[in-house]
Write a structure and sequence with these properties.
Elements: E1 6-11, E2 14-18, H1 20-29, E3 33-35, E4 38-42, H2 43-51, E5 55-59, E6 62-64, H3 66-76, H4 80-92, E7 97-99, E8 104-106, E9 120-126, E10 131-132, H5 133-145, E11 149-155, E12 161-168, E13 183-186, E14 191-193, H6 196-206, E15 210-212, E16 215-218, H7 220-228, E17 233-235, H8 244-254, H9 258-270, E18 274-277, E19 285-288, E20 302-306, E21 312-313, H10 315-327, E22 331-338, E23 341-349
Parallel strand pairs: 1-5, 9-11, 13-17, 20-22
Antiparallel strand pairs: 1-2, 2-4, 3-4, 5-6, 7-8, 8-9, 10-21, 11-12, 12-23, 13-14, 14-16, 15-16, 18-19, 19-20, 22-23
Helix pairs in contact: 2-3, 2-4, 7-8, 7-9
Length: 352
Amino acid sequence: MSNGVIEGDLSGKKVILGGEATEELYHQGSFGRPVEGGLELSLVEAAYLLDRGRIKVSLDGADLDFRSFFEAATSIETGFEFRYVVYKDLRERGYYVQPGVTDFRVYPRGGRPGKTPAEFYVQVISERHPVSLKELVEPMKVSRQMRKRLMLAVVDEESDITFYEARERELRGDMKVEARGGTATLLEDRVMLWDPEASEDLHEGGFYGKPGGGRLQLSLVESAYLLERQVLDIVDRSGAHLSPEEFARRAKEIEEDFEMKRQVYRDLRDRNLVVKTGFKFGSHFRVYKRVEGSKKVPHSEYLVHAVPDDHVFHLPVVSRAVRLAHSVRKVMIFARQEEGEVRYLEISRLKP
């Protein structure tokens, strides 16, 4: 130690300090990890302490200033500069931060390592980096198994950080529908139910379709669901009856995403939720827990967008979707298939 500054050496992806660092840095500030004879710091921890004049770092006997160390760290560790920006921000907000199974684990305000469990696992992402669905789902599963919340820290090109939380969401409603249907016709890209009483019954009882002139215009996914449930009998314009399989085949020719949307629509309706198009909000569906008839339509609670298992998220698109959902008092949900089941991923803004 020289003039109260603790000296250490850069070794691979770590900075190794002597035993005197254990009390001052580890016990007092929860920096690093004790090892035999000293303290081991990650590169971001070392950069943070070096910038504050708490430590000195040498490489092959030569002292490194902050610039030299930072440049070396970026060549050693991919994504170092983004992790450093997030680490520094969280530390300056008063959080204890340590390396974790994702990029970091963060302790709640008033908590610290050794006294309280961590609250968040943090995954750091550059706004320019496309993120696959798997890259979100895997750390989310790990976080859930460890009883932690997953924080996504997205660093933009100006090094500002937007924090999101990603978590599994269990969606349930209380809209149990008992409605009679009738015979409807598949037209060019939608289905028309002609009977006025059946049309009113379906719309008022289950908020299906768009009424007009005593008739009910139904979307393809609504129609497929009602056909499967034997509420509707669907014919084509020649009068030929369509089985659920034949209707689905024709619908796929009309709408590329039909099958994916149908699976999600079916699951949501089976969960007693009311599902309508979310086109105006840039998503597949807007979803209500309950609708008490067409004269008492509340705000929908969720925006749900179906994604395939190989989906890649582009973060500016996610940012727009989450911000829009928040601005209209809804929660942004992404629906995916996993092991034959529909699962729901909520992404929401987080203010640490």
